[in-house]
Design goal:
Blueprint (H helix, E strand, L loop, with lengths): L1 H21 L5 H25 L9 H26 L8 H22 L5
């Protein structure tokens, strides 16, 4: 829960920073990349909180633990690389972004796996 809270809180701070301090300092493409990183960070902070709200019995599922870790890695790689790209000329970060996206997808696939292993097919 602490990681979800940190991601959520820092996402709000980063979003406010983008809206107020960066809009005149970054070009439109860099600002957009930064804002996309913020959006995905906050979306997955909320998703992590959702995992925290699951009954304790479900936390014994490999699927659920995998989903949480995949989303954490996704935020670090996807959002982190977009933040880096917005502020630096480090173009090597470009290929890191899709790896974070794949981590997000893996996390969501794990949620589906958890649902099927628990017998919930809705």
């Amino acid at each position: 829960m602490s990681i979800a809270g940190a991601f959520g809180g820092l996402g709000v701070v980063a979003g406010a920073f983008a809206a107020h301090a960066l809009k005149d300092r970054l070009d439109a493409q860099s600002l957009n990349a930064f804002e996309v990183g913020v959006d995905y960070q906050i979306f997955h902070a909320i998703a992590l909180l959702g995992l925290c709200a699951l009954p304790q019995a479900l936390w014994s599922s490999r699927w659920i633990r995998c989903a949480g870790w995949a989303w954490i890695v996704g935020v670090l790689l996807f959002s982190g690389s977009l933040y880096g790209l917005a502020f630096t000329e480090w173009r090597w970060l470009g290929p890191v972004t899709p790896l974070g996206g794949v981590s997000f997808i893996v996390g969501w696939i794990c949620v589906v796996g958890a649902a099927f292993s628990a017998g919930a097919r809705d």
